[in-house]
Design goal:
It is a single chain. It contains 21 helices and two strands. The chain is mainly α. It is globular.
Length: 469
């Protein structure tokens, strides 16, 4: 009986492997035709072929239609687990869309793809065992890495970066971003103006204090009447380099973000832009300045445009930027070791680009359950990106925060639950990467992170907040 059972299992397994092999060959032919149809260039066609031949879409695309054999008992559970894991780590849809349209692929997608190519972790071994024609060849690796480098050079490398660092997952800050001087001066005043709040006590600078890293140093910010917000205030420095604003990405632009707090009942609590404008327009000097910049007059749109223009100037170049621009002596050996560990431990697969963050949404607790370990009840704010998209896949996903000036911006994480930078680094390794770092490695990474502390050169028109009755 036992022998019969073993033979039966072997027959089923061999049959499954044969069926899956035939199905995969069929899928491969279809995938190659799809790649040719959906690619914007010969190079994009080659990359799409590599990704499709290795069935990356099976586990990493929200549009996947699995073959019939994926419904077999045992295989179904394995497929569901792989898909849930794959979608949590890396959704490939935006990268596929970029290959089809010719626009640059997202920076975080490039970094994640580069990591799995270099480490040869995809496709997983069990998947390759079943789909025996998958697996990156040396030519595949070379094609993918060359394409990643070309994308970075053409779309993301900062002008003036040292040639040897043009293909790094992180880049130096630009020296400046285009702005209008009149709007910047006006926006500076409005950023510091408490009259944007209902009771004339709170300004943008109250929660984004430029003297202490562009934050308020609190777990959650306090608004009008001492009301407490639901989430930690991110730094305003370098925020113009984020793809979206707020932890959940609900604002697509800096201007849209600037329009949120004044009308938020917990933060600045004004009931309308008319209420704010009625106060501001009584200031004849400010009104004259405003009309010089915006001849069409006072409006919420013009106020937020000016504030966003000012915030665009809040760049903080650091020693690390000097290093990436070619100053090889500006970092010491411990800081350089920390940067290598930063990359080796996958920190640079999410904290990418000029802002070392702000380019993607990542799930908090990929490798271990952060929220269960945190020790207090979950809140609506913990839902993160899902509060905006209503997509269950986005639950607990947050915009990756910038690491610039990170030594100044405690407490850390969206919930402000960590006050020590070493502790935050340790937690990220545990909950995002699934590693326990040696204390000496944590020290080195922290030493590197401190090289990201930069200096902002305030505009000559900088003003201090004023008190208003």
């Amino acid at each position: 009986m036992k022998k019969l059972l073993i033979v039966s299992i072997a027959v089923v397994l061999i049959g499954y492997l044969c069926i899956s092999g035939i199905a995969y060959i069929h899928d491969k032919d279809y995938a190659e035709r799809a790649a040719a149809r959906l690619a914007a260039s010969p190079q994009a066609y080659g990359i799409r072929k590599v990704l499709d031949r290795n069935a990356c879409y099976y586990c990493h695309s929200t549009k996947t239609v699995l073959p019939n054999y994926a419904a077999l008992p045992g295989i179904r559970q394995l497929a569901e687990h792989d898909i849930q894991t794959g979608l949590a780590y890396f959704r490939i849809d935006s990268l596929y869309a970029a290959l089809g349209s010719g626009v640059p692929a997202p920076e975080a997608d490039l970094a994640k793809l580069e990591t799995v190519v270099n480490e040869r972790t995809m496709p997983p071994k069990l998947f390759r065992f079943v789909h025996w024609t998958t697996g990156l060849s040396a030519d595949d690796q070379r094609a993918l890495l060359d394409w990643i480098a070309s994308q970075r050079h053409s779309a993301y490398a900062t002008p003036g970066v040292a040639p040897e660092f043009a293909n790094e997952p992180v880049q130096p800050l630009p020296h400046s971003l285009p702005t209008d001087a009149g709007k910047v001066a006006l926006g500076n005043q409005l950023f510091n103006d408490v009259r944007l709040s209902a009771d004339n006590t709170i300004s943008c600078a109250s929660c984004h204090n430029l003297a202490i890293g562009g934050v308020d140093g609190k777990k959650v910010s306090s608004g009008v009447g001492g009301q407490l917000g639901a989430i930690n205030a991110p730094t305003v420095f370098n925020s113009a380099l984020n793809r979206t604003q707020f932890w959940d990405g609900r604002a697509a632009t800096l201007q849209e973000q600037a329009g949120g707090p004044p009308l938020n009942p917990v933060e600045m609590a004004s009931t309308s832009w008319s209420e704010i404008i009625d106060k501001l327009k009584q200031d004849s000097s400010l009104t004259q300045q405003f009309l010089r910049v915006y001849p069409d007059g006072w409006s919420g749109e013009n106020i937020t445009d000016a504030i966003a223009e000012y915030e665009t100037t809040l760049l903080t170049p650091s020693r690390f930027d000097a290093y990436l621009r070619g100053d090889r002596d500006v970092l010491n050996s411990e800081e350089l070791r920390g940067y290598q560990l930063f990359k080796a431990n996958h920190c640079a697969t999410c904290h990418v680009g000029k802002n070392l963050g702000g380019q993607s949404f990542e799930r908090m607790g990929l490798a271990a359950d952060y929220f269960a370990a945190r020790g207090h009840a979950r809140t609506d704010a913990d839902n993160g990106r899902a509060n905006v998209t209503k997509d269950p896949l986005d639950r607990h996903a947050f915009k990756t925060p910038t690491l610039r000036n990170v030594e100044l911006t405690a407490p850390y994480f969206h919930d402000g639950s960590r006050i020590d930078l070493r502790e935050a680094v340790r937690d990220m390794a545990t909950y995002q990467v699934g590693k326990q770092l040696a204390e000496s490695d944590i020290d080195a990474i922290v030493a590197f992170l401190r090289t990201l502390t930069g200096t902002h050169q305030p505009a000559a028109t900088s003003v201090r907040p004023r008190d208003y009755p």
